[in-house]
Amino acid sequence: MSGAGQDTGSKPGGQRDFQADVARLLHLMVHSIYSNREVFVRELISNAADACEKRRYESLSTPELALQGEPFSIRIALNKDARTITIADNGIGMNHDELVQNLGSIASSGTRAFMEKLGTAQGGEDRKVDGGSQSSISLIGQFGIGFYSAFIAARHVEVETQKTGEDTRWLWSSSGAGTYAINAVEKSAQTNPGTSITLHLRDDALEFLEPYRMESIIRKYSRAIGIPVFLTASPDQDPREIGDGRAIWARARNEITADEYKEFYNEIARTFDEPDLTVHWHAEGRYEYTVLAFIPGSRPLDLFDPERKDRSRLYAKRVLITDDINILPGWLRFVRLIVDAPGIDLNVSREMIQQTPAFAAIRRAIVNRLMSELSKLTQNDAEKFSRIWKNFGAVLKEGLYEEPEKRDQIYEICRFVTTLDSEGQRTLKDYTAALKTNQTAIYYIAGDDISRLRASPQLEGFRQRGIEVLLLSDPVDAFWVSNALGYDGKPFKSVTQGAADIANIPLESGAEDKPSQAQTPSAAALIAFLKETLGDAIADVRSSDRLAESPACLVASEHALDRRLEQILAEHGRAGGVAKPVLEINLKHKIIASLAANIQSGADKSSSEDASWLVFDEARMMDGEKPLDPAAFRARLFRMLEKSVAPPENE
After folding, report:
1. Where residue 289 falls among pLDDT bands split at 50, 70, 90?
2. Structural domains in the chain, sorted by start
3. Residue ranges in 237-314 assigned as alpha helix (H)
4. Range 289-327 burial, b when 16+ CB lie within 10 A, else e
């Protein structure tokens, strides 16, 4: 690995070669490209797997290159006394020239060259491999730098190798300081074609000599590759198989049992429940990838973790690239996902994917497929879907707010608790199919407790008319419904915002319809008195056609935010807090009628003021809020109680 393009003469002008300090370049590459030290194990195992795959392929046309009486394998041996790690394979091996080309030239990929050679040799025609074409060959490396990751942990590296079909065995060695050596070595009776890489570890890398540490790395990154991986913990111990090739997603669906799916799901999800939905498919065409997805049968404890990480794992040809990738949007973070995309663009460290159109297309396709499967489940197994919605409906609805372009798909699977359906199985399609005469909107009320929502006074007029109202109790509901344009041409309208506009919808049979007192002098005097008494606590006072049994309620102004959304924003420090509400009063209620009579007669103004504030605070409490001034509320309540229980003056 000598310096590239050395300038041997002094030239006054013209074209010149770049100068390269190869030792410095190698140091920067090893310590800057890879953010995780342990990946050198993955890279070297992947190279070994490629070597085995190359030998398998070459033996199809040259049978004498085939293994005799032994399977392909990768063997890793730890030696604490010698402070070495040895990774050996019985693959294709390398000769002198290939060592120079593959290990002596940074970014020269033997795998890439092999694939190019195949394409040239076959003239574009596929050579069949175990029933498949050359495109099915599972070769992993592509950049030609994975081998150098060994210097992350090693101060010195030795590669002993013999090319299959050749007699000479070679030893390549380097300390990563800009030079390397290649020498022929004597063969022993036990040596066979293949490659053995020995890493002499740095002082700060001795952790990799611990068997549990090495085993965990192998299981994490490489257990799914098609070549068995064996680990020898010390020279006096027998090897144990660690990598078992369990790439269940690479098998045909009809070959996998339900128990095998469950076992694999329990392993990756680290749970003991059964998945409620398993989706497994292989996509071909412009982009090729395989997906195995599970929807858990129970809600994870960290479902609402602020970081909202999804559980996706990205593989390339069965090798784990990363388990920290946002393939799924946040509103599908509960799905346990495996994606094996052999052709996806990676950066040179293979730790991050490139944000390319290919990745975006795969992401869209996966989301669409998952939504399609959920939609099918609503028709084919309503009970199972009901469990999924109960566990994850609140998360799925986040997509209505975060990805408006997905709203139509999410709407189709949404289930709601309503004033007519306490089981939470009502769909928007059901709702719009049952609209009342003259009803032009989908009505909803948002809050944090279903029981309190059911008891909301704002619903009374809707109930009298048989109008169904969505009861939205998840925190995200207040956000998505305020931004949604509507469904099936019908806008969403909060029953706690603006005028109710339900006077033209006929009352249900048997509902009492008393004449309105909104235009009477006493009503006008009452409204004026309430405005004066309550002052800055309210934005307005008006008579209500949404109340039937309660004396009063609070609603947001026509162009203000829904009251529930305002409360959530205020709880999270929104500047300005909650806007002043509108007080709606039920002129037909006995308390309001009596208050109007007292005001009109001018009797005991202080009692009327106390009553006005108590009506207002009672409306606040029905909305789940505290009285505006708890101490004043207590004093007013005691004064009213004293008057109500005081004995007549003539006794």
Report:
1. very high
2. 22-243 (3.30.565.10), 248-390 (3.30.230.80), 436-651 (1.20.120.790)
3. 258-269
4. bbbbbbbbbeebeeeeeeeeebbbbbbbbbbbbbeebeb
